[in-house]
Amino acid sequence: METERLILRPITEEDAERIFVLAKDPDVGPMAGWVPHKNIGETLYVIRNVLNGPECYAVCLKGDDRPVGIAELMLRTKPDSDELSDECELGYWLGKPYWGQGIMPEASKELIRHAFEDLGMSKVWCGHYAENKQSARVQEKCGFRYHHTEPNRFVPQFNEYRVGINNLLTKEDWEKRQADINK
């Protein structure tokens, strides 16, 4: 997928070194609920076992194939079924050198478009921990609306509880927003 400034492409094992450089930063992972990577082997494990979903993408600046972050639509199955649900969850993280440049809202908006237009989703969920103001801002820019708070969301990698904020964007709200933008 492509936007004005970005390419969203599948992640490969060749991305491990670059992802490790960004994912080892202690200011990146903990805000999203994961421990900074300790070595490239851990990053390879994450690429193979976590960042392996069908809608998981390396976010790259045009003209530079190296990832600056990761964005994913996490597909769900219907309860008691193998059939895909028409709801998914958007997750993302961005390397610290790229914060404050509008990169993640741009990537997220393209994934949201893809979810509704190409994948037939009716709802996209997205959440953040209360202290993660940057992620809250990305979701606001993308049109997500507050849905509910989880006051005691368990974060297993840190063996602690945090306040989780859950936001929702429906296809109907997204279509209205697109119509307003195109006026």
Brief description of this entry?
The protein has 183 residues and is of the alpha+beta class. It is 32% helix and 34% strand.
Topology:
Blueprint: E1 6-10, H1 16-23, H2 29-32, H3 40-49, E2 56-61, E3 67-77, E4 84-94, H4 103-118, E5 123-129, H5 133-141, E6 145-155, E7 160-170, H6 171-181
Parallel strand pairs: 4-5
Antiparallel strand pairs: 1-2, 2-3, 3-4, 5-7, 6-7
Describe the structure.
With 183 residues, the chain is of the alpha+beta class. It has one domain: Gcn5-related N-acetyltransferase (GNAT) (Aminopeptidase, 3-Layer(aba) Sandwich), CATH 3.40.630. Helices cover 32% and strands 34% of the residues. The chain has 6 helices and 7 strands; from the N terminus they run βαααβββαβαββα. The chain has helices at 16-23, 29-32, 40-49, 103-118, 133-141, 171-181; strands at residues 6-10, 56-61, 67-77, 84-94, 123-129, 145-155, 160-170. Strands 1-2-3-4-5-7-6 form a 7-stranded mixed β-sheet, sandwiched between helices. β4, α4 and β5 (123-129) form a beta-alpha-beta unit. α1 packs across α3 (40-49). The radius of gyration is 16 Å and the shape is globular. The chain starts with 5 loop residues before the first strand and ends with a helix. The model has no long low-confidence stretch (mean pLDDT 94).
SSE class: alpha+beta
Count of domain modules? 1
Tell me the fraction of residues in β-strands, as a range.
25-35%
What's the total count of β strands? 7
Terminal-residue CA separation: 25 Å
Q: What are the low-pLDDT stretches, counting only 5+ consecutive residues below 50?
A: none
Could you state the CATH homologous superfamily? Answer: Gcn5-related N-acetyltransferase (GNAT)
The outline comes out as globular
The CATH architecture category equals: 3-Layer(aba) Sandwich
Rounded radius of gyration (Å) = 16 Å
- By DSSP (H or I, 4+ residues per run), the number of helices equals 6
Mean pLDDT: 94
- Assigned CATH class: Alpha Beta
